[in-house]
Amino acid sequence: MPQNYVRHQNIVILGILLAPLALVAGADSNNANPPAPPVATVRVVTDEYFGIKVADPYRYMEDLTNPEVTAWFKGQNDYTRAILGRIPGRATLLARIKTFDEGAPARITDLRRLPGDRYFYQKRLASEDVSKLYVRDGLQRGERLLVDPTKFATAGGPHYVISYYAPSFDGRYVAAGISAAGSEDAVLRVFDISNGKETGDVIDHAQFGSPTWMPDGRSFLYNRLQLLTSTSAPTDRYLNSRAYLHVLGTSPDKDPMVFGAGTPNVNIDPADIPFVATWPGVSYALGVIAHGVRNEITAYVAPLDSLNSATGPWKRFCDVDDDVTGFDAHGSDLYLLSHHGASRYKVLHTKLSDPQVASAELVVPPSEAVIQNIAAASDALYIQELDGGLGRLVQLPYSGAKPEKIQLPFDGSVGLSATDLRLPGTLIELTSWTRARKIYAYDASRKNVTDTQLQPVGKFDAPADLESVEVKAKSYDGTLIPLSIVYRKGLKLDGSNPTLLEGYGAYGITLDPFFDPKYTAWFERGGIFAVAHIRGGGEYGEDWHLAGKLLTKPNTWRDFIACSEYLISQKYTSTSRLAIEGGSAGGITIGRSITERPDLFAVAIDAVPSSDVVREEFTPNGPPNVPEFGTVKEPDGFKALYAMSPYHHVTDGTKYPAVMVTTGWNDPRVVSWEPGKMAARLQAATSSGKPILLRVDYDAGHGIGSTKTQKQEELADEWSFAMWQFGLPEFQPAKP
Q: Where are the beta strands (DSSP E) in 304-425?
């Protein structure tokens, strides 16, 4: 599920035969084509919601264990591989993607910083496929490999990755979640940092583990999913999880539950996800309830020394109506991030001993900037803002001094990478549309930002020939939609440029500036990359989110259409050279854009998409997503879901653009039958003769946990598919 990561550093969710598709580039259909993809049999199931009948021609696909269904998926993927294998420019494109991707000696992510100048991070060498966990004492000293997930793989089996990790406060142990094949289904394991060996503590069903350590350094709290039985429904998977206390060397099956359903004075629904947060040197713990993907939390407080059973004296101090979305603590102080009466957020201060949201002190009032995150260090509270599309960092001293903006090395997006209550300053990550991510340190005593040198410099990390521009496109209702456009210098506005437009628009998530060296393979072919900051996201705060949620969701894809029209009207590109892309909840944006304006696009990349949104509620990840999209059990909820469901708006006989739908067979967030049903419906309905492909990766999930090679291959498939459809000569198959 699109994880509702609370902003705290320790909490990391017909019978119609399909005519053989011509291998077309634009309107040209004279190319050789492989055998046609398998045709999905139609068996209509009709449901009625509040007097409205809804037909579902491929309901049977929801049983992914059905041999007929698995054979159809395999046949579709075989066909897709045959089609893509005939695109002559794909191999060269893949080689260039690989070159640019491996231009740096290593990529560093997921940092932690502890006293004693100790650093933890995940690192992937250019020659490796997955990241490994390292530790080092001092930036100038050598590093040491701590956890290698490849050791859990077996010959012919799936790959493994580190989904999350948390070092103990004293730096003696680290708890890490290890997952297979993109499933995110983590098994939590504990490692001795002194020698890298496992302690023998192994806890399954820890997908949302979020381990947080106790002061003794030998016990930690974590979330564990319930054990399912043969009679459990698919929707039971994420229900009734609980937070437990584990002591090293004991059986996890005997761990006491400390927070969740059954805890006295704690109100929690089955779909809620409970976590516990602790801090070094702080005598209280927070019990946090994430309401599925909803950003607003419910939170309780209890003395830390009482967390040894389910009867801890938890006291609730905020609920969803308080609009608190993030928090951090320092000593006896609690800081809260809230959008209550402040769409662009504010920061509140109260006492941990008796938190009172209603009477909390306002320490950072709302402004034009959107406050995205807060993090507490020993010297100050650090505040991450988004101001006019650019990241800003603010230091709020505990002394009561005024907030101070920190001068950053360049404009772009900023992330609070690692803070610790026992250390001053913070590690930050900076990137922009034309510069790859780097890791900096803010020195609170010197008040300056310096490069840590943790991230090795890559030779393709800051291309001098790229530039970006920020514009605004007028949507159908007059709302101005921010649009970021990146391209090589000297661009000619003649409508001929291959263009990839990306959009998302859900959960209040912002699409902040970034640069991935792999994209150089797109830019060097004259490509434009654009990002539409549509409603449903959080670029302008909570009001922007609410303007693309539930019954207002149509704004999301209509904003995206407006951005597409802007790129065409301003001659950046043309319909025949415009590809659109979105994934997950962004599948609503892409799917409804092509069903509402199929004439506007040449290509659509529909990645792991939410497509049958009406039925999504009945998937494992459905209940947690009800707050964002609605439920078919309520009239307005059904109305919203039906309006946003791409699958239900595919119309027979329509000239749809070329579409590549992708799925990972182990996807825990959008189950593969949703993309499958969308592909089947488009194949049956389109009259354009352009290809509708279904790409299946059987060793992947939602893209989280995919290997370097998988990501390179997927980009090569998507971009060569688009360039073939654009009619670029080097990507045209030979005519028979």
A: 315-318, 324-330, 333-338, 346-351, 361-364, 370-376, 380-387, 390-397, 404-405, 413-418
